[in-house]
Please model this.
Amino acid sequence: MKKEFLDLGKQPIANKFLKEDEIKDEFFFDLKVVFDEETKLVSLKEFVKPELMFNENYAYNTSMSTPMVNHFRNTASVLKGRFNPKSVLEIGSNDGPFISNFPTDTSFCVEPCDNFAKITGDMGYRTRTDFWTTDLSKEIEGDIGKVDLIYSANCICHIQDLDDCFSAVANLLSDKGVFVFEDPSLLRMLERGSYDQIYDEHAHVFSVIALDNILRKNGLMIFDVENLSVHGGSNRIYAKKPNIPSDNVITQNYYDNIAEEAVFGIDEFETYKIFAERVEESKDKLFRCLGNLRHNGKKILSIGATSKSTTVFNYCGIDDSIVDCITDTTPSKQGLLAPGSHIPVVNRDSVNLNDYDYAFLGAWNFKDVIANKERDFVKNGGKFITHVPEIMIFS
Ligand code: JHZ
Model:
């Protein structure tokens, strides 16, 4: 039932930034994407072993992006106001920007990366350094009982076995509890041509339609959906146990999202073939654009050593002969080489942007924040390049 529609070539671990002597052993896999005719789920054809991606060296610190810290503070306040949960569990708590808004004595974290689990542990939160599974959820239930709010951001789409993941949630959730999770939206990816949402960690890119099918199979139902602007367009899904009277009635947002996706053709294979053609065109155009600028002696850097830019640079064949360096605010990425492309990642403060003619937006999702921060670059004649939704040069 699974049909392949996109081949993004050989790709490395998207967040495995390297030292020079690690290049020779770098791991690559075939990044191909499939559509499941039965559930309508879009997934990677070949999954990468979770331990290779999520371990003590995982480089994506949520708290290094100020807009995301604000996002999680607001999210926590909205959820407290709407549901008033007595206990909270976060799956994939990273370095704690969401959970830190809840009391330590009634909150619990699950995080497989030791470096981050240590941070929330030090903050006083009971933290299990582990992957989210039904076995773990039963263990936690034995420890703390049922939970009123289970929350997860940019993590459920990382979990390869969704049936196990959702059964684990259904097991631990109190009868009137809510499961809230947010991940990049498949519809927004298809509309914007942002194929760089696809990389090793994103085992799936979710539509509401596919989630509706899979959650139902596993004892949960969606009652609300919110469309968010973060990460280039995400959906926040609200689910609960079916057949239990609660205040959480099915909202119009839920029906509207399902209808919008159906009109777009998200449940039809043909839609994905058209998307794949657009992606190939984008690759050719970006390679020609950056290649020509370089050929004409222009200096190019990239801003944001993102997982997304790992996909773009490796798929389009862009390396340090075209892009001199990538600036990033995350200390654990700085001083290392970007996965696959081996472009050096540097601290933003060590670079004078005015020495460059063009800045490619690896973090195009923060376009406005970056353009605002880098007004001086534009004043001095610098220009930005993005590939979303089309290849564009702008200032
Ligand atoms: P950002 C992450 O993907 C990883 P990435 C993860 N796997 C996931 O699922 C998705 O999010 C949704 C830096 N930066 O958020 C900070 C600047 O340098 O787009 C970050 O390293 N300057 C969990 O990696 C990176 O850019 C700035 O001004 O694609 C942004 O990464 C700002 C604002 C950020 O996610």
